[in-house]
Backbone:
């Protein structure tokens, strides 16, 4: 009997130095799809995803830029998605984090491969000339990944206080497990990095700013949304075959979903309002009761956020990081394709 699986797609920031060569390693029999992406990039006068992946060293000035990172991450995730053993797993739903929504649409069939690339590349290149604002990450948990309401309240109060400064615009951008991603203008970023109380979780020091990230999912991107509607028409969207869960936790069912509404959400609300990845995962586990969660690569950066969400919901009696780690070692519920040992459980 097949196991039920929910597929989770990565967002920006998932292709880092450790992932250099990921595509070369895993592309295998999916060359024809990746060759299409390279061809489209070449036609646009852009460096191809294969060229970026094959570089001798990781170059943050290239690999982290939106116009490059988005297409590269899409290519890696595409190869991973097609590597899932469909004789072993039934994909019952797909969701993703931030840019992962575009990948969700692609892999569910709401966009054909050319239009999927077009959406990913267009949205990733919107701020090619100048990045609007930025993102700062801050935790609202303890060392055991348990949600800390007091720290969350402190964060909200700090945002309110800093927004009293006339030049600041600060918003919640992404709910990422028990971590909050904040989007802000340049003045707001400076205030957040200066005023937020330093916190250390494990080996990571917070707050910190994400390199080459804009203030995604905030009102600062209203102009980006308007441009997207002008450049990406309704003809791109088509009937899809797998249920998808958006950044509000709303389930779009195949065949019955209104494609105009899907486009409106994708280019409108999703661009300028907070993306609640935590709720997406909660809905995925509670509504679809999967046997496994499969995290597409590159990398495994969403593993922590997914684990924190499981802890918030005490899913499978997971109440702490210790519980989650123990389960992952014995009978992993979360399978990250960026990990060789877990990849084999998905692809073989």
Residues:
């Amino acid at each position: 009997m097949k196991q039920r699986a929910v597929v989770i797609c990565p967002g920006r920031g998932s292709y880092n130095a450790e992932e250099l060569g990921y595509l070369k390693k895993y592309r295998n029999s999916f060359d024809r799809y990746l060759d299409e992406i390279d061809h489209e990039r070449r036609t646009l006068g852009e460096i191809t995803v294969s060229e970026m992946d094959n570089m001798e060293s990781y170059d943050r000035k290239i690999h982290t830029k939106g116009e490059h990172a988005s297409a590269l991450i899409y290519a890696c995730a595409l190869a991973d998605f097609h590597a899932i053993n469909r004789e072993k797993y039934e994909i019952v739903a797909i969701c993703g984090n931030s840019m992962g929504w575009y990948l969700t649409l692609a892999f569910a069939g709401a966009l054909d491969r050319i239009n999927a690339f077009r959406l990913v590349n267009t949205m990733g290149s919107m701020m090619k000339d100048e990045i609007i604002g930025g993102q700062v990450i801050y935790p609202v948990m303890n060392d055991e990944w348990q949600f800390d309401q007091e720290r969350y309240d402190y964060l909200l109060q700090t945002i309110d206080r800093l927004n009293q400064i006339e030049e600041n615009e600060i918003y919640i951008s992404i709910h990422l497990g028990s971590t909050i991603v904040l989007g802000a203008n340049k003045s707001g970023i400076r205030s957040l990095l200066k005023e937020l109380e330093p916190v250390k979780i494990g080996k990571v020091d917070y707050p910190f700013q994400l390199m080459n990230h804009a203030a995604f999912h905030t009102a600062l991107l209203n102009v980006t949304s308007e441009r997207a509607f002008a450049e990406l028409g309704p003809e791109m969207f088509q009937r899809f075959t797998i249920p998808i869960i958006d950044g509000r936790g709303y389930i779009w069912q195949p065949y019955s979903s209104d494609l105009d509404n899907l486009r409106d959400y994708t280019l409108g609300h999703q661009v300028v309002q907070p993306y609640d990845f935590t709720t997406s995962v909660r809905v995925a586990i509670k509504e679809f009761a999967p046997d496994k969660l499969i995290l597409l690569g590159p990398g495994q950066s969403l593993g922590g956020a997914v684990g924190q969400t499981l802890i918030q919901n005490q899913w499978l009696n997971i109440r702490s990081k210790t519980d989650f780690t123990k389960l992952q070692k014995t009978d992993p519920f979360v399978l990250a394709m960026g990990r060789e040992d877990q990849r084999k459980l998905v692809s073989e």
Residues 134-219 form a domain with the Alpha-Beta Plaits fold (CATH 3.30.70.250). The longest strand covers residues 89-96. The mean pLDDT is 96.
